[in-house]
Amino acid sequence: MYKQPDGTFLFSPSDLINFMGSEYVTWMDRFNWDYPGKAQQDEPSETDNILQQKGIAHEAAFLQQLRDSGRDVCDVSQAADRHAATTKAMTAGREVIYQAKLRDEQFAGYADFLIRVEGTSKLGSYHYEPWDTKLALKPKPYVLIQLACYADLLNATQGT
Questions:
Q1: Which pLDDT score is estimated for 85?
Q2: How far apart are CA 78 and CA 110, in angstroms?
Q3: Considering only CA atoms, which of 81, 157, 78 is closest in space to residue 116?
Q4: Which residues contact 57 (CB under 8 A, 6 or more apart)?
Q5: For residues 120 and 109, what is the distance between their CA atoms, to the nearest angstrom?
Q6: Phi, psi (5° rounding) for residue 128?
Q7: Which of 75, 84, 100, 150 could form a disulfide with 130 if both were Cys (CB 3.0 to 4.6 A apart)?
Q8: How many angstroms separate the CA atoms of 91 and 74, rounded?
Q9: What is the pLDDT along the chain (160 residues), one digit of tens a residue?
Q10: What is the pLDDT of residue 91?
Q11: How far apart, in Å, are the Cα atoms of 115 and each of 10, 30, 127?
C-alpha cells in the first residue's frame, strides 16, 4: 500500500494477498499511513532473513542463467522511473525484462521477469508473460494471485 500525493492509495498484489489472509494486516497497513510511528512492525525473524537471502540468491542465479544462455535481458531494476523503463523495453521488444514495474490507476507491482512470447498484441507480433522466481517446489495460491495481478496489469500496455 502506497499513499499517492493526491491522497489516494496505490495497492500491490501483496496488499491483496495480505487482505485475503487477514483483514487486520490491511487495517494495520492503513493505520500506519494515517498515524505514522504509532505502531511498530515486528522485527523479521532470523528464519525470515535467511529465507529472504536464499530467495534473492535464487532470483540472481536464474537471472544469470538467462544471461548465460544468450537471452536479451533488459534490467530495469535501477531505472529512476521503472514503469517508463519497463514500457520502453516492452515497446522495443526486449526478450526478457527484469524487475519490471507494472501499474494502472489503483494497482502496481514488480514482476521478477517479463518474458516475450509470440502472439498478437498492441505491441506487434509478440506479448509478455510474467514469470516469478520462488524457492518452493509447488506453486502456492498467493503466487498464482500475484502472477494473475501482473498479467492483468500487462493489459494496459499490451492489450492482452
A1: 98
A2: 12
A3: 157
A4: none
A5: 24
A6: -120, 150
A7: 150
A8: 12
A9: 888 889 889 999 999 999 988 999 999 999 999 999 998 888 889 998 999 999 999 999 999 999 999 999 999 999 999 999 999 999 999 999 999 999 988 899 999 999 999 999 999 999 999 999 988 888 788 888 899 999 999 988 899 8
A10: 95
A11: 25, 34, 8
Pairing of the two strands 108-121 and 124-131: antiparallel
Q: How far is CA 36 from CA 13, 32, 69, in A?
A: 23, 5, 47
Q: Are 91 and 123 in contact (CB under 8 A)?
A: yes
In this prediction, residue 69 carries a pLDDT of 97
Three-state secondary structure readout of the chain: CEECCCCCEEECHHHHHHHHHCHHHHHHHHHHHHCCCCCCCCCCCHHHHHHHHHHHHHHHHHHHHHHHCCCCEEECCCCCCHHHHHHHHHHHCCCEEEEEEEECCCEEEEEEEEEEEEEEECCEEEEEEEECCCCCCCCCHHHHHHHHHHHHHHHHHHCC
Q: Which residue shows C-alpha cell 494471485?
A: 145
- Rounded to whole angstroms, the Cα distance separating 137 from 48 reads 18
Q: Quote the Cα angle for 132-14-137, to 5°.
A: 40
